[in-house]
Amino acid sequence: MRSIVKLWFLLIVGLGLLASACTDDEPAPPIVVEPDPDPDPEPEPNEPAVEPTISNLLINQVDEVIIPTYFDYQEKVVSFTAIVDDFVSAPTESSLNAVREAYLQAYRSYQAAAVHNYYATSNVDLVNTTNLYPIDVTLLDELISSESYNFNTTAQRRANGYPALDYLLYGDQDVLAAFANDPKRTAFLQALVGALQTKADDLVQRWTGTLRDNFVNNGGVALGSSVSVQLNRSLVYYEEHIRGNKVGLPIGRLGPNDTPIARDASKIESYYKSLQDNSDETALELVRVAVEEMEDIYLGSTSEAGDGIGYEDLLLAADQESLDTDIKAQYQQIYDQIAGRTLITGDENLYNSIQALITLYKSDLFPVLNVQDADGANDGD
Predict the structure, then answer these.
(1) CB-hemisphere CA count at 13 Å for 303?
(2) Can you list the alpha helix ranges (DSSP code H) found in 90-225?
(3) C-alpha torsion angle, residues 371, 352, 250, 252 (rounded to 10)
């Protein structure tokens, strides 16, 4: 009986202490929840943030490589147009220098835009109306004198675009006087830059419209797919315009299996500026920018976020690290060749470095990705 009473006494005392604790002003100690040691782990080096699928690659290519490239080109040309208008209003040495700098900025940006020579670019014929060289000076002078020009016609292709601007801005001994003494020349300059802006605006409108969705939704790797079109058309541009026109023409080579032609150091971009500078450094820089855009496609380089899904990631997912290393090393070799010279002519090492990348693409990259070489030219062996 005493045991029962004692038990009840202890129970009542315990309840009393518990009630006292609940009415105490001191708050109960907080409940500590240990955080997840790594709630959102960063991807390992060289590991993409998202899965390297064809769908993710196409989304990244159009949103972070193609469209930003065209936005940049549009921005540079809009600025160029405004600076030309300022020059026309007040033609001074200072305003002429501003026009020349804006020309170079737009020309650099064009190099990247032109690499995407497929879909919308083909429709507006960007390359053929913007950058065919050498310029036909006689034709250009006739067009200016007659005030009869149409920047979209085939007949004017050799008196058009950036090569025509190169001649207008650097071709005379006294460029400022040439403009001041000839209002027709000034009118042509404004009309030409205006045509460049119209084309840039058109390209941005196309790529940010339904073309973007069509590009993303056209999956797979078969002929006609976005992957096949992008790889094949950019490589054809690389062969014809980077290897062939930018480097091959001045050194006398059209292709690795073609009969050599006569060397002609005048067949380069920004020829008249090169004469003024007594070097081909501007032309070499334009080659470099064009090659860098090819590498951006391969790496999936993004406008802001660095490295997105590119063709490199498809190779790594297929355990082709060695091929990826070879391709990136070949790009670096091209940059080294450009950096180590002041003239495009001289030796053929730059040309051969550019050609070696074509071999890697056609003989290795395309087969690994199961992409057919739509060009069919036998110059990748």
Answers:
(1) 13
(2) 93-115, 120-124, 126-130, 137-146, 161-170, 175-180, 183-207, 210-217
(3) -100
Measured CA to CA, the distance from residue 335 to residue 350 in angstroms comes to 9
What b/e readout covers 288-316, taking b as 16+ CB neighbours within 10 angstroms?
A: bbbbbbbbbbbbbbbeeeebbbbbbbbbb
Determine contact, residues 212/65, Cβ cutoff 8 Å: no
What sign results for the dihedral spanned by CA atoms 111, 115, 120, 123?
Answer: positive
CA pair distance 192, 83, nearest whole angstrom: 13
Looking at residue 156, what is its pLDDT? 95
Does residue 36 register a pLDDT over 50? no
Question: CA–CA separation, 70 vs 114, rounded Å?
Answer: 9
Work out the number of other CB atoms within 10 angstroms of the CB of residue 283: 22
| Sequence-ordered list of residues with C-beta below 8 angstroms from that of 248, at least 6 positions apart, any chain | 254, 255, 351
How far apart, in whole angstroms, are the C-alpha atoms of residue 107 and residue 120? Answer: 19
User: 372, 369, 371, 364: which is closest to 381 by C-alpha?
Assistant: 364
Nearest to 311 by CA among 301, 292, 363: 301
DSSP E strands, 217-331: none
Whether 177 and 50 have beta carbons less than 8 Å apart is answered as no
In whole angstroms, give the CA distance from residue 151 to residue 161.
Answer: 8
d(CA 29, CA 238): 69
* Per-residue H/E/C for 110-136: HHHHHHCCCCHHHHHCHHHHHCCCCCC
Give the least confident one: 66-75, 204-213, 255-264, 293-302.
Answer: 255-264
Whether 102 and 83 have beta carbons less than 8 Å apart is answered as yes
Q: Which residue has the tokens 């070949």?
A: 330
**CB-CB contact of 200 with 73 (8 Å):** yes
223 pLDDT tier (thresholds 50, 70, 90)? very high
The predicted model scores a pTM of: 0.86
Q: For 306, left (φ over 0), alpha (ψ -120 to 50), or beta?
A: left
